[in-house]
Design goal:
The chain is an alpha/beta fold. The chain contains 16 helices and 13 strands. The longest helix is centred in the first third of the chain and has 17 residues.
Length: 431
């Protein structure tokens, strides 16, 4: 006997990105090919070799979220998550209530740098100015360092807790911390919750910001960032022969997922089906995938099989495409291995070319780009691709085309340390 598998409908999307503080603004900027990369404004980066990033601009957490008490517990990128999740909930037109709260799940992908640079700098200035920690002063009542809110904001699961509190979700809850794959793997976990009937609704997404002196210094020391400070809008150029590193970004992306039949029964608008999830661990190098694309190959094949979709049905692939020499070559090798002859047909682009790399938020934001592409019938471009790398010979989207039906889309996310995530989204009209 063949059992019908529960399906996951995407009924709400929310975004806060370097291109805009909501979904509509982000999508419009993406389609207009407006770059979100600029000189860093959030702190003085003049002493760094890299002084550019893709920052979220003009974001007012109080104006967007309103709950000042809740925001006391939130750092900058956690407030991005609250705003994006709010938008996704409004978009879906559904929220937990007393009857359904235990049937709602929440899965988030987030970063691990809990303490902000400012908090660490204050700690040093106030309690270790001579290089030795003054423990008695540190623990003294009323000292800034003894503020429990600072400690609460620093916890890796703080963003998850804030979302549960905000929306009254009482079902399954989990936080994923796998660097650049976090957002994608959070969505994959959410898909499994729907399939297994652990939840009927899931709020899922990713959020992060490493645009601070510590994050910037770490990536500068690794030589992973583009040093093209004089031409920030051209610095991120995935698959271009002259690429020389990625650009740090920040932001959040969230989905509301619902069990398919329930979403249809209430007349919900469905952007797409989250249809397939694949994961693997390369463990080749901390900073690189294997040149053969071995780990990404496994994740992509798993996602296609899980979605019951063939390579010939994929009409758009949102590449991880960081704009680093090794990553782009490795990903192209993986795509050739998985797609075979279809690799010459499927349109490919990396939207990091315009919004930078959102680290733990990247997978969720880029999956949202796929859902919006399916919904609008539009394939986003791979900006700044001028001189093609002969080792990256795919069907890159370098200019906008007219509307086209996307039967299914794939989103890749591969991280430092070798954790690989791949998602497949299917057009709501495809069975």
């Amino acid at each position: 006997m063949t059992l019908t598998r529960r399906r996951a409908a995407i009924t709400g999307v929310g975004l806060v990105t370097p291109l805009g503080n909501d979904t509509a603004t982000t999508w419009e900027a993406l389609c207009a090919e407006r770059s979100g990369v600029a000189p860093i404004a959030g702190f003085d980066a003049s002493g760094f070799s890299v002084r550019i990033a893709a920052e979220v601009k003009g974001f007012d957490a109080v104006a967007v979220i309103g709950d000042r008490k809740l925001l006391k517990f939130a750092n900058r990128y956690q407030s991005f998550a609250l705003a994006a999740a709010d938008e996704a909930m409004r978009d879906a037109g559904i929220a937990p209530d007393e009857r359904t709260a235990s049937r709602w799940g929440c899965v988030v992908g987030s970063g691990m740098l809990g303490f902000s640079y400012e908090a660490l700098a204050d700690l040093h200035r106030g309690f270790a100015a001579d290089g030795e920690l003054n423990v008695k002063q540190l623990l003294a009542a009323g000292s800034a360092a003894a503020d429990p809110l600072v400690f609460c904001r620093s916890q890796p699961n703080a963003g998850l807790w804030l979302l549960l509190r905000r929306f009254g979700i009482r079902g399954y809850a989990s936080s994923v911390h796998t660097a650049c794959s976090s957002g994608g793997q959070a969505l994959g976990t959410a898909l499994k919750l729907i399939r297994r009937a652990t939840a009927d609704y899931v709020l899922a997404g990713g959020f992060d910001s490493m645009i601070d002196p510590i994050g910037l210094a770490g990536f500068c020391l690794l030589g992973a960032l583009s040093p093209d400070n004089d031409t920030p809008e051209r610095a991120s150029r995935p698959f271009d022969l002259t690429r020389n590193g990625f650009v740090l970004g920040e932001g959040a992306g969230f989905f509301v997922l619902e069990e398919w039949n329930a979403a249809c029964a209430r007349g919900a608008h469905i952007y797409a089906e989250l249809a397939g999830d694949g994961n693997s661990l390369s463990s080749y190098r901390i900073t690189d995938s294997h040149p053969s694309g071995d780990g990404p190959i496994q994740a992509m094949r798993q996602a296609l099989a899980d979605a019951r979709v063939s390579p010939g049905e994929i009409d758009y692939l949102n590449a991880h495409g960081t704009s680093t020499p090794m990553n782009d070559r490795s990903e192209c090798a993986a795509i050739h291995a998985v797609f075979g002859a279809e690799a010459a047909r499927v349109p490919v682009s990396s939207t990091k070319s315009l919004m930078g790399h959102l680290i733990a938020g990247a997978g969720a934001v880029e999956a949202a780009v796929c859902a919006l592409g399916i919904h609008h019938g539009t394939v986003p471009v791979n900006a700044n691709l001028v001189e093609r790398d002969p080792e990256c010979d795919l069907n890159f989207v370098c200019e906008r085309h007219g509307p086209q039906r996307i039967r299914a889309a794939m989103s890749n996310s591969f991280d430092f340390g070798g954790s690989n995530s791949c998602l497949v989204l299917r057009n709501a009209g495809e069975r």
